[in-house]
């Protein structure tokens, strides 16, 4: 196996092997763009290292061969005393993990070569500054020395010199600092800073490998659902310097605005700076457009390169570049992160430009982004006090109490408070707090600062670089223009779409995208219209492409009508138990507790017209579309009084010697029906079989409602669904009774109702005997909530709050199986049952109505296994439509 690739050997499609950065450096190299030469060590090498603790045997020689070639090309050797080749060693995983892993710059500098660099560059200060940066970065990331010790020493040097910024330190000061830094390394790491450049390089490579498994990298991967076993590649790249004076600099740029998608010049530039200074948001940058004044030649070249990249990748790219004494170098490019709104706009813009087609456009957006666009926004008309404006870094409307450190953010959010994390700037150590917060506000840094990049990735509201806000994290307060002080705990609101910061709580209004789906979108803000237009077009692409139909889980006409507006093609699950709550609960209670047939019939007679009316409304709202009505499912105790409360009532009545026969009778019945495991007890079809008349009453209500709708010239398409079936015999008994009732109603009304009867597949036994069950079922609907519960043996009501966090932390699964279908376990039962069912009955209709029906990843799975439809809650319908379209690309 080959472990090292020269930049000239790779290409953008080798991200698995070379990581995103390495693959794209190779792609740019092959496009003839100015990339400093270098090579990439593969993720395979990293995996071997992480598994065995040692690098693969062949790696050393391969690295030597590539280093030789690089040295020949550059005409100098790594760390060569009189003219050193210096390299950067950078991590680069398949998926971008901004700031999560390690990078070491300036490798190759030593006590000797620093002199050579000074001579070659004609700049002592630069050489010593580069050397102190190397020791600092190397000490911290490779040797594990506490970074603050270096920071403190740097501060002390500035204080001694009575200057405030490090650029004011001179060569002699930096030289002294190097001595100090080396001492720190010796004391803290118990070894000298290595003078051998190859040793520096090898140790840095190992450190990058190791950084794959730091806590913060693991946390980030879990958040972003990036698999833990991918490993990182390592890029060894010859150094170019942006800190060689005012004709040098470094910057980041986007080929389009990542917030709006508009074309133009977007980016930040920092003169006389090196590497990470821009991303880290350490010094304030200037807008990229100003580079035109600073260095027109490089600016023009950069614009041209950006155009080349966009046309080549056919997408928004972000880039990092450095200018070394007027010569432009490309250090990185990738298809750039963008806001959800921009993703939709860019996809349609690229279609209009003829760069991509409709199918490709669908791959450029996703359901999570659409869901984000459906979040509410601030009410612009509300009387509010704007106290600052920063950069709109990640959209959304966030309201919460101001906190100034991650620890408090986590602590307060755990106790149920909504918080806004306010920092001068964030760094990877703030990740926990950023996750806990509703939104993030910083006073420094641009669109590419750590806060902005990470928040966008998490879909979290972020305003950054709000410079007029004075953030004092030590005193936990922020001073706004005019002198008002926001203390920890004061409520603030931030708008990640406009960058505005408000004092107090700003009311929120629905998103224009929801208004559009609801059919209420008026010509509003220009910005909103453009977005709605893009969403509208992408939804049309998806609807044209998808094979899966999308239905709604809805139990009343209001939800059904909304679902229809959102594009539902029927109801996949009407949970009839929801119709028995409130006033009707007592009727059901009486039915359950009835001792005699007469009592039972009395309750059923009262329930029948109520149920029928429910269905009439539902069929009317979904006229012409299928409506799957599920007969009563939940455990009985949900309809009975709470056992403890009732016991107390009885005991009290007893002690007061008050009459309490009824209560006592009720209590005895509740005791009789009490179950240890109600979820596995008397529910679903079992209820229908042991409570005579219950299911037939429901079937009659459905049939009569359908007949009434027909008489009113409607087009009812009811499907009757039996829950929790484990064996075909259960279904056969219920069917026989149901068929009889339907025949009676048909005879009485003189109409053919064409009702179909099917079942849920939500028990492993049902899935395993699906071939038999299909004999008695015209359709299957997979109840993946219960199926997940019973396949895993996880109580669906308990586990997520109890041990799932630990499971997620331990990486047992990356996401709860109740959220995204467990393809290997639950999913294989779905696959098996679908196949067996269709073998028995080729026209068997197949759907899913568990929560997974609206989950993007699961929708793709259901498409693949050949289901006919997914059913989900009304608000998730647009997401399901989009993902069903994406699945079919
Ligand atoms: C299911 O189990 O997936 C289902 C849809 O039914 P319920 O959630 O009502 O049990
Ligand atoms: Mg169920």
From TrEMBL:
Organism (species): Streptomyces afghaniensis 772
Domain PEP-utilising enzyme C-terminal: from-to ranges: 533-885
Domain of life the protein comes from: Bacteria
MF (Gene Ontology): ATP binding; kinase activity; metal ion binding; pyruvate, phosphate dikinase activity
Keywords tagged on the record: ATP-binding, Kinase, Magnesium, Metal-binding, Nucleotide-binding, Pyruvate, Transferase
Residue ranges of domain Pyruvate phosphate dikinase AMP/ATP-binding in the record: 56-284, 291-341
PROSITE patterns referenced in this protein's UniProt entry, alphabetically: PEP_ENZYMES_PHOS_SITE (PS00370)
Biological classification of the source: Bacteria, Bacillati, Actinomycetota, Actinomycetes, Kitasatosporales
Residues covered by the PEP-utilising enzyme mobile domain: 417-499
Binding positions (substrate): 575, 630, 762, 783-786
EC number(s) given by UniProt: 2.7.9.1
Family, as annotated: Belongs to the PEP-utilizing enzyme family.
Reaction catalysed by this enzyme: pyruvate + phosphate + ATP = phosphoenolpyruvate + AMP + diphosphate + H(+)
Protein name per the record: Pyruvate, phosphate dikinase
Family annotation (PANTHER family): PHOSPHOENOLPYRUVATE DIKINASE-RELATED, PYRUVATE, PHOSPHATE DIKINASE 1, CHLOROPLASTIC
Active site (UniProt): 450 (tele-phosphohistidine intermediate), 849 (proton donor)
Binding locations of Mg(2+): 762, 786
Family matches, as Pfam families: PEP-utilizers (PF00391), PEP-utilizers_C (PF02896), PPDK_N (PF01326)
């Amino acid at each position: 196996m080959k472990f090292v690739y020269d930049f000239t050997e790779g290409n953008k499609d080798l991200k698995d092997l070379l990581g995103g950065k390495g693959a794209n450096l190779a792609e740019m190299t092959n496009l003839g763009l100015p990339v400093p030469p270098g090579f990439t060590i593969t993720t395979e090498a990293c995996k071997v290292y992480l598994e065995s603790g040692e690098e693969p045997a062949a790696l050393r020689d391969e690295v030597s061969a590539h280093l030789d070639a690089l040295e020949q090309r550059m005409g100098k050797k790594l760390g060569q005393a009189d003219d050193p080749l210096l390299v950067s060693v950078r991590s680069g995983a398949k998926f971008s993990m901004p700031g999560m892993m390690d990078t070491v710059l300036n490798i190759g500098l030593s006590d000797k070569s620093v002199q050579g660099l000074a001579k070659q560059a004609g700049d002592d200060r630069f050489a010593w500054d580069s050397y102190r940066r190397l020791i600092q970065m190397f000490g911290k990331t490779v040797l594990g020395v506490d970074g603050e010790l270096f920071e403190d020493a740097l501060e002390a040097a500035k204080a001694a010199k009575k200057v405030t910024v490090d650029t004011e330190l001179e060569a002699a000061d930096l030289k002294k600092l190097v001595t100090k830094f080396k001492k720190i390394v010796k004391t803290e790491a118990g070894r000298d800073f290595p003078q051998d450049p190859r040793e520096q390089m090898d140790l840095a490579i190992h450190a990058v490998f190791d950084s794959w498994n730091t806590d913060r990298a693991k946390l980030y991967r879990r958040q972003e659902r990036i698999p833990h076993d991918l490993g990182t590649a390592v890029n060894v790249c010859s150094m170019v310097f942006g800190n060689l004076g005012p004709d040098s600099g470094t910057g980041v740029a986007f080929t389009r605005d990542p917030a709006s998608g508009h074309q133009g010049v977007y980016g930040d530039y920092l003169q006389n700076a090196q590497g990470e200074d821009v991303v880290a948001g350490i010094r304030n940058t200037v807008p990229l457009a100003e580079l035109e004044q600073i260095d027109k030649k490089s600016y023009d070249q950069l614009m041209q390169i950006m155009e080349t990249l966009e046309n080549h990748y056919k997408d928004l790219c972000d880039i990092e570049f450095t200018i070394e004494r007027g010569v432009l170098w490309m250090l990185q490019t990738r298809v750039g992160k963008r806001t959800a709104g921009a993703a939709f706009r860019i996809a349609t813009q690229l279609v209009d430009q003829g760069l991509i087609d409709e199918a490709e456009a669908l791959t450029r957006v996703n359901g999570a982004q659409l869901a984000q666009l459906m979040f509410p926004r601030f009410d612009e008309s509300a009387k509010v006090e704007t106290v600052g404006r920063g950069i709109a870094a990640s959209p959304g409307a966030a309201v919460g109490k101001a906190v100034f450190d991650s620890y408090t953010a986590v602590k307060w959010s755990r106790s149920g408070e909504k918080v806004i994390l306010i920092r001068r700037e964030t760094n990877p150590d703030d990740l926990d707090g950023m996750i806990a917060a509703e939104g993030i506000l910083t006073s420094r840094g641009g669109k590419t600062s750590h806060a902005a990049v990470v928040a966008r990735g998490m879909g979290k509201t972020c305003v950054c670089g709000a410079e007029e806000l004075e953030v004092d994290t030590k005193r936990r307060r922020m001073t706004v223009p005019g002198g008002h002080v926001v203390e920890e705990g004061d409520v603030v609101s931030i708008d990640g779409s406009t960058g505005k910061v408000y004092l107090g709580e700003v009311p929120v209004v629905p998103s224009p995208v929801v208004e559009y789906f609801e059919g209420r979108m008026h010509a509003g803000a220009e910005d909103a219209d453009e977005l709605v237009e893009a969403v509208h077009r992408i939804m049309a692409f998806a609807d044209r492409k998808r094979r899966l139909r999308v239905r709604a889980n809805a139990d009343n006409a209001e939800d059904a009508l909304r679902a229809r507006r959102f594009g539902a093609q029927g109801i996949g699950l009407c949970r009839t138990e929801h119709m028995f709550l409130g006033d009707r609960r007592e009727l059901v209670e009486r039915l359950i507790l009835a001792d005699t047939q007469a009592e039972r019939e009395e309750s059923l007679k009262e329930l029948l017209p109520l149920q029928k009316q429910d269905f009439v409304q539902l069929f009317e709202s979904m006229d012409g579309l299928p409506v799957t009505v599920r007969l009563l499912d939940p455990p009985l105790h949900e309809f009975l009084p709470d056992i403890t409360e009732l016991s107390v009532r009885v005991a009290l009545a007893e002690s007061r010697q008050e009459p309490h026969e009824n209560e006592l009778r009720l209590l005895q019945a509740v005791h009789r029906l009490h179950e240890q495991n109600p979820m596995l007890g008397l529910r679903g079809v079992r209820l229908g079989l042991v409570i005579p008349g219950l299911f037939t009453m429901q079937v009659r209500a459905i049939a009569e409602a359908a007949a009434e709708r027909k008489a009113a010239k409607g087009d009812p398409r009811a499907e009757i669904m039996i829950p929790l079936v484990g064996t075909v015999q259960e279904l056969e008994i219920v069917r026989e009774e149901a068929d009889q009732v339907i025949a009676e109603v048909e005879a009485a009304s003189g109409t053919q109702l064409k009702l179909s009867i099917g079942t849920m597949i939500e028990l492993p036994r049902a899935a395993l005997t699906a071939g038999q069950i299909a004999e008695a079922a015209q359709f299957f609907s997979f109840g993946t909530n219960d199926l997940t519960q019973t396949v895993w043996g996880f109580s669906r009501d308990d586990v997520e709050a109890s041990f799932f966090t630990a499971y997620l932390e331990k990486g047992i699964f990356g996401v709860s199986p109740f959220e995204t279908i467990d393809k290997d376990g639950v999913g294989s039962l779905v696959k098996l049952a679908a196949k067996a069912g269709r073998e028995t009955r080729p026209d068997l209709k197949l759907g899913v109505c568990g929560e997974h029906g609206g989950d993007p990843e699961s929708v793709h799975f259901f498409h693949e296994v050949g289901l006919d439809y997914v059913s989900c809650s009304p608000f998730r319908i647009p997401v399901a439509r989009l993902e069903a379209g994406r699945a079919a690309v």
